[in-house]
Amino acid sequence: MSDRPPRSVLLPTTRWTDACAELAAQLGDNDELLIIHDGEDDPVTGREDAPEGVTLVAAGEPDGCSGKANAIAAGMAAARHDRLVWTDDDFHHPPDWLATFSADYEAHGPVSEVPYFVGRDLLSVLLEPLYASAGSLPLFLGNQIWGGAVMFERSDIDEAAFLDELRRTVSDDGLLMEYLHVTNVGRTRIVPIGGTIRESVERPVRWTQILRWHFPGAIAGTWIVSLLVLAGAVLAPVPAAVALTVLHLGVNEVLGVRRWTAVLAYPALFVFVPLLLYAFTRRTFVWGGRRYRWRGKFDVAVVE
């Protein structure tokens, strides 16, 4: 018998995905997997043969927060254990994922991993290298949190204050960064994104607004650096193309990912900067089938 504390794994999803089965197979004695969905009409509720240890939690419709924030809040309220694991349904969880993550916690305390976003449509494929350098690499180097893979215990945060704010905002991991210091163990998970151009346009809007409300200095720095690099790319295209390609090949090496899309770094820049400007000017965005208006850090309206 292991003396490891039991774990509550929180997985927001409305469908039974491969991740659900992968995580259910990794549960130990007294562990639980909470499949957190919106309501009784979700496809996941039609599954009648859920494995042992799996519980469906209906979060209800969000009011004043995002669907993801609402789901995490409901999951934390329903969870029976102190050791919590947040994860997502859109990436592969290998058979030793949960056990390795627990060993990481024992060694380091609160821990997280790194996403590497791989495109499923033309625009998201083009933007892959910039998502790696502007998104994944800072998480890795800065010991920052990715909500798709984070383990902590209730005593590691001020839970009551956190949940109160979570129910009034959009970004679950953006807010958690303000409450919790983690060790990012640097393991990279491939996360497919996009599928349609529309989805790929909405994503940077949401990410930009997360930075705007949680890390305004970071978004200002990103904008300034992007403009400077774009100016250099226009004035000296050949050296810039070579430098950007080499730089992003290096970023991929640090992240442990081999992707040919590093060669797209130069043309991606000419799309990324206008998208940043578009993201700054947008007042609403779509996430998970809902449209949100994020007017302040704790002022969120679900408009569709």
TrEMBL record:
<keyword id="KW-0614">Plasmid</keyword>
<keyword id="KW-1133">Transmembrane helix</keyword>
<dbReference type="InterPro" id="IPR029044">
    <property type="entry name" value="Nucleotide-diphossugar_trans"/>
</dbReference>
<feature type="transmembrane region" description="Helical">
    <location>
        <begin position="260"/>
        <end position="281"/>
    </location>
</feature>
<protein>
    <submittedName>
        <fullName>Glycosyl transferase</fullName>
    </submittedName>
</protein>
<feature type="transmembrane region" description="Helical">
    <location>
        <begin position="213"/>
        <end position="240"/>
    </location>
</feature>
<dbReference type="GO" id="GO:0016757">
    <property type="term" value="F:glycosyltransferase activity"/>
</dbReference>
<dbReference type="InterPro" id="IPR025993">
    <property type="entry name" value="Ceramide_glucosylTrfase"/>
</dbReference>
<comment type="pathway">
    <text>Lipid metabolism; sphingolipid metabolism.</text>
</comment>
<dbReference type="GO" id="GO:0016020">
    <property type="term" value="C:membrane"/>
</dbReference>
<keyword id="KW-0812">Transmembrane</keyword>
<comment type="pathway">
    <text>Sphingolipid metabolism.</text>
</comment>
<dbReference type="Pfam" id="PF13506">
    <property type="entry name" value="Glyco_transf_21"/>
</dbReference>
<keyword id="KW-0328">Glycosyltransferase</keyword>
<keyword id="KW-0808">Transferase</keyword>
<keyword id="KW-0472">Membrane</keyword>
